[in-house]
Amino acid sequence: MSCPIVILAATRMEIAPLLDKSTVKRETRSTVGRPVIEIDHAGQNAMVVITGPGMINTAQALTMAMERFRPALVLQTGIAGVFEKAGLGTGDIAVAESEHYIHTGLDRGGSPDLPAPLPFDLIEADPGTRMGRFPVDPALADHALAVIDDGFDGEPCRVIKGPFITVSTITATHATADRLFAAYAPCMEAMEGAASAQIAALYKVTFLEIRAGSNRVGKRDKTQWEIPLAAERASKAVSLVLEKRRLS
User: Fold this and answer.
1) Rounded CA gap, 159 and 142, in Å?
2) Which CATH class name applies to 5-106+117-243?
3) Chain-centre distance of CA 108, in angstroms?
């Protein structure tokens, strides 16, 4: 079976507003129990895969989807932590211009600087992957940014394009947030995007990532989190992009 678009979210909650506004054609489970939901949204057929959180869950789920559906586009979405120094707050939206798995590289012996590059490519003939950097389609990212910005015009929501980082350890202090921003200048932190980007690159499939901020990166204060708002806005952003019909 083929399907032109695979949409990934770590949890159903993060994509539920999009599902509610789509025609759900069927829902099945993968061999290991991942929900796989075929939808029609504004005439676009897509498979939504609930991957589970983290890099390994995402890599497994997307590999399954790649082999089963042979998509032309992988679209990662969901909620994320935002970096205040990038000018973002909760509920704001960003389109990735790059993905970076920051725990990739060669230890510099305790140096606070970035890791040194690995002595080998993670994707053959792509030296950027030696530092855990993976591509996002620039033309599609620019298109998505324009579409989303127009769709949120007049709402109290900032929409930007910028670097994303993927972590395996959730940032929980302001000191770490400051160090990460100084090193990578990211606008968002999450736990799945670099895995999706790497798998998409291995299959030579276009990759796009759109997220909305649920919390500020730094000290964990759940009283300040806006998870439902972020899920609603991320889903609306994806909906706007799907409606523009330039994805398949």
Assistant:
1) 12
2) alpha beta
3) 29
Q: Give Cα separations from 194 to 37, 102, 166 (angstroms).
A: 23, 9, 6
Mean pLDDT in residue range 164-171:
97
Contact 99, 194 (CB under 8 A): yes
State which amino acid sits at residue 98: S
Rounded CA separation 57/59 (Å): 6
Confidence at 225, pLDDT banded by 50, 70, 90? very high
Give the Cα-Cα-Cα angle 217, 79, 37 (nearest 5 degrees).
160
Predicted confidence (pLDDT) per residue in 1-55, tens digit: 788 999 999 999 999 999 999 999 999 999 999 999 999 999 999 999 999 999 9
Structural element, H or E, at residue 25 = strand 23-29
Q: Domain coordinates of the chain in residue numbers?
A: 5-106+117-243
What one-character-per-residue DSSP string does 26-45 give?
EEEE-TT--EEEEEEETTEE
| Torsion angle in degrees (nearest 10) through CA of 55, 61, 63, 64 | 170
